[in-house]
Automatic annotation (TrEMBL):
Protein's UniProt name: Enoyl-CoA hydratase
Organism the protein comes from: Belnapia rosea
UniProt xrefs under InterPro entries: ClpP/crotonase-like_dom_sf, Enoyl-CoA_hyd/isom_CS, Enoyl-CoA_hydra/iso, Enoyl-CoA_hydra_C
GO molecular function, one term: catalytic activity
NCBIfam families to which the protein is assigned, alphabetical: PRK07327.1
Length: 268
């Protein structure tokens, strides 16, 4: 089956190779994941899986930014409305599992800033490539919610528990060069090389033995499937946190560009 991609609003598509589909996140606001993009990042992996004309996909961001994280209006809606919270929780779960279960290999090409739902897909890509100065951070605890999205399912496996805990608890920024050094991403390259390197890797995968590549991806991703209960728990605790007091201060401090002042104690 050949899939048409004309109904997407926040994702653009082109073919740098006949069997490679390049997906570009683009919303004109540093590619933040608003409600529309968040939903599209759920279904794109199912479409790619079903599209017989695609053997490999590339995910990147428009302009100089991969993705600047979650749209603050969506964050506010999650914290204030139960139905929005449950819908986005389901989408956040499905982004991860749909990408893991997509048969086709995915290459990410990250530059500028990589945060939030974009980072989820960037890190979960089968081959993750970033510029050496790309700024990578998981900002959940700075926002006042648990590091859910994707971190628990893959960060400890990629970079070890000690590094995963440090960066997820502190929200310290990682540059691409350091992310490669600790094993969080596959490759770090100079900015002018990023797009060409992503196309080179994707083209090699698209021209390779498709059955062997897909079965290898499936087998390796069983490590991630085994971590599913940890991921499910982290995601549940993240979205439980959206109903609490810490996220309100986290969001306000982001909007006011100041250091947050969280409550000193917690019943958690």
């Amino acid at each position: 089956m050949t899939v048409t991609y004309e109904n997407y609003q926040r994702l653009r598509f082109d073919r740098p190779h006949p069997r490679v589909l390049r997906i570009t996140m683009d919303n004109g606001r540093m590619n933040t994941a608003d409600a529309v993009m968040h939903g599209e990042l759920v279904r794109i992996w199912r479409d790619i899986d079903a599209d017989d004309s695609v053997s490999c996909a590339i995910l990147t961001g428009a302009g100089k930014t991969f993705s600047a994280g979650g749209d603050f209006e969506m964050v506010r809606a999650i914290s204030e409305d139960f139905e929005t919270r449950t819908r986005v929780w389901r989408e956040a779960r499905d982004i991860v599992y749909n990408l893991i279960n997509c048969r086709k290999p995915v290459v990410s090409a990250m530059r500028g800033v990589a945060v939030g739902a974009g980072l989820v897909c960037g890190i979960l890509a089968d081959v993750s490539i970033a510029t050496k100065d790309c700024r990578i951070t998981d900002g959940h605890t700075r926002l006042g919610v648990a590091a859910g999205d994707h971190a628990a399912i893959i960060w400890p496996l990629l970079c070890g528990m000690a590094k995963a805990k440090y960066y997820l608890l502190t929200c310290d920024l990682l540059q691409g060069e350091e992310a490669e050094r600790i094993g969080l991403i596959s490759l770090a390259v100079e900015d002018p090389e990023l797009d060409g390197k992503a196309v080179e890797v994707a083209s090699r995968l698209a021209e390779g033995a498709q059955g062997a590549i897909r079965w290898t991806k499936y087998a390796l991703n069983n490590w991630l499937r085994m971590a599913g209960p940890s991921f499910d728990a982290s995601l549940a605790m993240e979205f439980m946190g959206f109903s609490g007091p810490e996220v309100k201060e986290g969001l306000s401090s982001h909007l006011e560009k100041r250091k947050p002042s969280f409550p000193t104690g917690s019943e958690v």
